[in-house]
Amino acid sequence: MQSAQGERDERGETLIELVVAIAILGIGAVAVLAGLMLSVKASDQNRRQATGGAYVRSFAEAIQNNVDANGYRACGSAIAGYSAVTVPDLPAGYTATVTAVQSWTGSAWGACTANGIQRVDLKVTSSGDAKHKVDETLTVILRQPCNGVATASTSDPCA
Prior knowledge:
Elements: H1 15-70, H2 78-83, E1 94-104, E2 109-111, E3 118-126, E4 135-142
Antiparallel strand pairs: 1-2, 1-3, 3-4
C-alpha cells in the first residue's frame, strides 16, 4: 500500500520473505544435525577401536604369561591352546581368537612344524553389523622362557 506521499508503507515482512528465511534456517539445522550424527558415529567407532586395541594387547600379555608359567603349546594344538587363554575383563560383545601360529624355520616363517620360536596372530573383534564391526589384530613372537619349565613337547631351552 502506498501512502499519500508515494512512499511504501512499512508494516512487516511478506509471506515470501518468511518462507525463504525458514527454509534457510531449516537447511542450516539439517546440516548441524548431520554433523552431530557423524561425530557420534565416529566417536563410537573410535571407542570400539581403542577398546579392541587395548584388549588385543591384554590377550597377548595373557598368552605370554601362560607360556611363562606352562611353556609352549605344541604346534598341533597351539591355536586351540592359545585360544583357550582367557582375556582378563573382556567386555561383552568382543571375542578374542588366535588366527594363526607359525614357527621359525631358520630362514623364514612357515607352518608350525617345530616347537622353536612361535609367531602368533591374535584378533579381537567387536560385535555388530559389518559396517560397525571392528577387528583389531596383533602379531606376537613367543619364545620358550628360561624358567625351568619343560612340557611333553618341549624341553627347557636353558638346561
